[in-house]
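Our collaborator T.R. sent over the components below with a one-line note: 'Predict the complex.' Nothing else. No constraints on interfaces, no templates requested, no preferences about which chain binds where. So this is a plain run: every listed entity goes in together, and whatever single assembly comes back becomes the starting point for the next discussion.
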Amino acid sequence: MKSKNNKHLLIMGAFAFIGVILFVATVVLTYTAFFAWLEASGGSPILDVWEIRGELPPENASIIHLTEKDFEQHPALDSAIRGDNLDPGAWYLGDTPYGVLDKRTIGSAPVTYLEREVLIESFGPDVEARNQPYIEYDGAYYYFLTLIP
Amino acid sequence: MEEDKKLESRNRPKTAAIIIACGLAGIVAVALGLMLADALILYAMEGSGGQPMLYVMERAEPGESTVVPLTEQDFERHPALDAVIRGEERNPSAWEWGYRDQRVVGGTKVSYAESKALHETYDSIMEYEGAYYVILTTWP
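Returned assembly:
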């Protein structure tokens, strides 16, 4: 009788042991796999914002006037134009989507692929017509490019 | 010899029961482990300080995907979705930017847990008042 009880206890103990081992292994594996995946996908696209100056914009140009709501909904744009990632460079004459103009880098911020898609859908360029709008904020004109790693 | 055989045939269901119980214990342990890991990941992300966002994209055509209608219950359960589609976070862009068959309707900040729930619940094309929407959640 006693040996039967002992056998039962032994079997229950083995179950519990296997259960605990599998439980811990699953937690550790999933957790480390998730963060390893995050690390590996570290090469995120970069949002680069440029300011342009000159006789801008032409009469028939498409202009997007940035509002507070736009900045609130697109934190990366906010940080590049007026936040932590604002870091204006020197002015120089260079190629822009509107021709050769005086331009300077204003700021850049890392974005996810989805954020990049949302930025393009919100502020251009028009993929079909290859038309880039002028982005205006506080009297200055901007355009942005997203670089994929 | 014969007794041995008898014992063996009596032990067979017992062995099978033990194997099944072991398998079940394993499945339960792995399921519980996955649930705990999920909760731990959410907890770690909440502490990371990044800001997840919810964006809603409007599609001109639903395409060939299944379309699920959004109900008042959806808006009640997810106030962020309500705010973006028909509330104060609605801020639609022009159709002409990006691809012309879609535009961004708006976006708002959400918690990681809310972002995960939205991502898991709304993985198809949604319809509300004749317009088609796709729900996008971004994790920084």
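Summary for T.R.: The interface with chain B takes residues 11, 14-15, 18-27, 29-31, 34-35, 62, 67, 69-70, 73-75, 112, 114-115, 117-118, 120-129, 131, 133 of chain A (CB under 8 Å).
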